[in-house]
Amino acid sequence: MQEEVARPPVEEQATAEPAPPHRPVPAPAPDVEVDVVVVQAPRFGKPGPPMRRSPLIIGLTAGLGLLLAYSAYLAVQNVRSILMLIFIAMFLAIGLNPAVVRLTRWGMPRGLAVATVGIGSMLLLCGGIFALIPPLVQQTGELIDNLPGYIDNLRRNGQLNKLNEDYQLLDQLKNVATAGNVTKALGGVWGGVQVAFSALFNILTVVVLTLYFMAAFDRLKEGGYRLVPATRRERVRLLGDEILAKVGAYLGGALAIAVVAGLSSFVFLLIVGVAYPYALAVLVAITDLIPQIGATIGAVVVSIVGFATSSIQVGVACVIFFVIYQQVENYLIYPNVMRRAVKVTDLAAILSVLLGVALLGVVGALIAIPVVAAVQLIVREVVIPRQDGR
After folding, report:
1. pTM above 0.85, yes or no
2. Better-predicted residue by pLDDT, 268 or 18
C-alpha cells in the first residue's frame, strides 16, 4: 500500500498569503549631493562641569555683590546734585508737555510746538528774573540793614521785653542780624559770587535738559514702554499716560495757585503799607508752591515783618488776612483747580509732603502729591483687582 501524504485543507491553502517579492534597493543617482556636517571641537576645549556651590563660592559671590552695591551707592552720592537737576528737568518737561500736545492738536508740528513752548517759558523766566531781581535785591538789602532797628522796636512790646530780660532773645537776634554778621554768614563777597554762579549754572542746566526732554518726550516714553513685556504693554501704556497727565495737570495748577497767592499778597501789602511788598509777595508765591505747609511759612514770615516794620495793628491785620486767605485757598481755589488734576486725601497729602521734605527737601515737597496720586492709581487699578482675583 502506498502511504498518503497529508495535505492542508483547501480553505487554508486559499487563505495563505504569498511572501512579498524581493525588491532591490535602487542605488543613489550619481548627480545627488550629500551634505556632510563636520562637528568641530571647541576652540578653547570642552566646558567643564558647573562649579560646586561650596560655602567659599557662596560667600565670595555675596561679598562681591555687597561691594558692587556699596560702590553704586557711593557713585549715586557723588552725582546726587546732577541727578537732582535731571529729575527736576524731567518733572518740568512732563509739566510742559500738555501745552505742547495742545499746540500739536491745533495743527502745529511737534518740533515747532516744542520750540514755541520752550522759548515762551524762557522769556517768562527771563522777564520774571529781570523784573524781580532789582527790587528784590534792593528791598532785601534794606531789610537786612534795618533789621537791628526793627528788633529794637520789638522791645516796646511788654511781653517780648520781659522774655528778652529772661532769655536775652532779642539781644542774640540783634547780634546775629547786624550787617557784618549777615555778610559773614553769607561767606563774604567771594561766597556770594560762588553762590550766584552755582545758581546760574543749575538754572541753565535745568533749562537745557528740559528742552531736550521735551523734544524727545514721545521717543523716551515709547522706549520706556517697549521695556515692558508685549502682553502687558498696552495696559502699562494706559496707566503711564494717565500718570503723566496727572503730573502735568498738577504742575500747571500749582503754578496758577502760587501766582494768585503772590498777587493777592502784593495787593494787600500795598494797601496796609507794609514795607518791602514786592519781595514779600515773591516770597509768598514761592513758598506757596510747597503743598500744605508752604502757605503757612510765607504767612508767618510776612506777619513777622509786619509786626517789626510797621505796627502791632498792621501785624494783626497780616495775620487775619493770611488766615482768611488760606481758608479761601484750601476750600475754594485749591479744590477747584486740582479737582481735575489729582485726587489725594488730606492725610495722604500731609504724610507725603513730610516724607518728601525729609528725603529730597523742597523738591521732594513739590513732587510728593503727584507721586502719591500715581501710587494710588496703581493700587486702585492693579493691586486691588489682583487681590480680588479679577
Report:
1. no
2. 268
